[in-house]
Design goal:
7 helices; 52% helix; transmembrane; oxidoreductase activity; transit peptide
C-alpha cells in the first residue's frame, strides 16, 4: 500500500515529456530536389530541420521511403560537405610552394648565420686534439675501455682536419 502511493505520487509530479513521433508522410520533392547543390547555401536552421524530418522518416520502415528521400539522406550523412569537403583546386601546389619557400628561407638563414659567426676556436684543430689525446693518456683517463686502455685503437678526441698552413 505504501509503495503504490509513492508510485502514484511520482507519476503525478513527473513532468510530461513530449516525444516526436516518426513522420508518416513523405517529404515533398521540391524540398529534396538538388539538395546536393543547395546544401552548402542553406541556412543551418533549414539544414537541421531537413535532416530531422528525414531522420524521423528513417525511423519507420525504409520500404516506405521514396527514392528521393533515400538519396537525400545518404548524401546529407555521407556527402562531400563539411569535414569531408573536397580541397579547393590548387591547394596541393600552394602547400608544396610554401614548403619549398620555408626550406629555402631556413637554408639562407643558416648560411647567413654561418657567414656572420665567429671562426672556429683554436682548440678545434687536429694538432690541438692530438695533444689532448696525449695529455689524457698521460693522466690515465678512462683506463678500462677508453683512450688509456691497453690496445686502444680509436681516434680518441680527434675529429677536425689539420690546421691550414699560414
Amino acid at each position: 500500500m505504501f509503495r503504490s502511493s509513492i508510485v502514484r505520487a511520482s507519476r503525478s509530479v513527473a513532468p510530461r515529456v513530449q516525444c516526436r513521433a516518426a513522420s508518416t508522410h513523405p517529404l515533398s520533392n521540391p524540398t529534396l530536389i538538388d539538395v546536393e547543390k543547395r546544401w552548402e547555401s542553406m541556412p543551418p536552421q533549414e539544414q537541421a530541420e531537413l535532416w530531422m524530418s528525414l531522420r524521423d522518416r528513417m525511423k519507420g520502415s525504409w520500404a516506405e521511403l521514396t527514392p528521393m528521400e533515400k538519396k537525400a539522406s545518404y548524401w546529407i550523412a555521407f556527402g562531400p560537405h563539411g569535414p569531408r569537403a573536397l580541397p579547393p583546386p590548387g591547394e596541393g601546389k600552394k602547400v608544396f610552394l610554401g614548403t619549398v619557400i620555408g626550406v629555402v628561407a631556413s637554408f639562407v638563414l643558416f648560411l647567413g648565420i654561418r657567414q656572420l659567426g665567429r671562426p672556429l676556436p683554436s682548440t678545434m684543430t687536429r694538432e690541438w686534439e692530438e695533444a689532448t689525446n696525449e695529455y689524457l693518456k698521460e693522466q690515465k683517463v678512462e683506463p678500462i675501455t677508453g683512450i688509456s686502455s691497453e690496445g686502444y685503437s680509436g681516434p680518441g678526441y680527434v675529429q677536425s682536419p689539420p690546421a691550414a698552413q699560414k
